[in-house]
Design a protein that fits this description.
With about 325 residues, the protein is of the alpha/beta class. It folds into two domains: about 1-50 and about 120-319, Aldolase class I (TIM Barrel), CATH 3.20.20.70; about 50-120, Alpha-Beta Plaits (2-Layer Sandwich). Helix content is about 30%, strand content about 25%. It is built from eleven helices and 13 strands. It has a nine-stranded mixed sheet. Strand 1 (about 5-15) and strand 2 (about 25-30) form a beta hairpin. The longest helix is centred in the middle third of the chain and has 13 residues, at about 155-170. The relative contact order is 0.14.
Length: about 325
């Protein structure tokens, strides 16, 4: 039964204005088969619930230390002393050996200041819908809706289908933020319940895409063409990553692909590289592969790229 079906979600973000038209609530599902080095949500990549640690919120082992008491593997220990800008005093932080951490999450259960939190929780469709309905008035008045994002939501295709279907039954606009790296069957499942696909195109060369992102792009392109042929509407997103996909040759090939489904595209968003999520890598003790000194493309460069896409008859905007 659908109400027994569960999906692993790492965030439900209200009042989002970047994940489709209008004011929206975005449901972020955990797990992604792609490993984009510039990913601004590294906590979305793993399919498992993870422990995340924000030292700024820690009140210190002197006053608390509960995480040290419950850790079964000794991964948690006394760390360094530091001045807390939040609590205005010197405290001794806890520290973790990620190699020894069992991800049992016991520490997150006893951390009342929420310096330690579990990233990823299992929800039924009914539980998510109950949360979403609290914002429906905003969706209706602001022309918004619900976006299901990730990670890659099609990696949890049954749950994504059931959730989108339930939202559509409430007559709310739906968007699916997807890489389209999924089986054809997964795309067919959700197609009847998606008003707008938010699709990233990262690189047009299959080998280069596979080398950097970790998966080939032929499945992605084939699914996009299939969805367009069957009535899918698109907002194409192109993250412009210096040294990866910002060559004129690649951007022109990207524009040429978009022309194939131009009648299905509402707009092409050019997204200049940023790495605002760098701090998240530290929180889950994950290696950040992007160079710290990599600069985003200039406004002038982005305008040139926008003009190039417009030259192909595409509605291109810089987001």
């Amino acid at each position: 039964m659908e109400k027994e079906l569960k999906g692993k979600i790492y965030d439900i973000q209200e009042f989002s204005v970047h994940d489709g038209p209008g004011i929206r609530t975005t449901v972020f599902l955990k797990g992604c088969p792609l490993h984009c080095p510039w990913c601004h949500s590294p906590e979305s990549q793993s399919f498992y619930t993870q422990m995340s640690y924000v030292p700024l919120k820690c009140i210190g082992t002197e006053l608390c230390g509960e995480c040290l008491k419950v850790c079964p593997s000794g991964a948690a220990s006394v760390g360094e002393s530091t001045y807390s800008t939040l609590y205005k005093k010197d405290i001794t932080l806890a520290k973790w050996s990620r190699a020894d951490c069992l991800q049992c999450l016991k520490c997150t259960e006893v951390c009342f200041p929420e310096a330690l939190v579990a990233v990823g929780k299992d929800y039924t469709v009914d539980e998510v819908i109950a949360k979403l309905r609290k914002s429906y008035d905003y969706f209706i008045s602001a022309g918004g809706g619900v976006t299901v994002s990730g990670g890659e939501p099609l990696s949890q295709a049954d749950f994504t289908e059931a959730l989108l279907k339930a939202v559509k039954e409430d007559n709310i606009h739906t968007a699916l933020d997807t890489t389209f790296f999924a089986s054809r069957g997964s795309v067919e499942k959700v197609l009847p319940y998606v008003d707008l696909f938010l699709l990233d195109l990262k690189h047009m060369d299959n080998d280069r895409h596979n080398e950097v992102v970790g998966v080939p792009n032929d499945v992605i392109h084939a699914n996009a063409l299939f969805a367009a042929e069957h009535g899918g509407r698109f907002q194409i997103r192109i993250p412009v990553i210096p040294g990866f996909n910002d060559s004129e040759e690649n951007l022109r090939k990207t524009a040429e692909f978009c022309v194939k489904i131009r009648d299905s595209i509402e707009c092409v968003q050019l997204l200049p590289y940023h790495h605002y999520g760098a701090s998240k890598y530290d929180r889950i003790q994950m290696y950040d592969p992007m160079p710290a000194d990599l600069k985003p493309p200039s406004d002038e460069q982005m305008e040139e790229y926008r003009s190039m896409f417009e030259g192909y008859g595409l509605n291109a905007i810089i987001h």
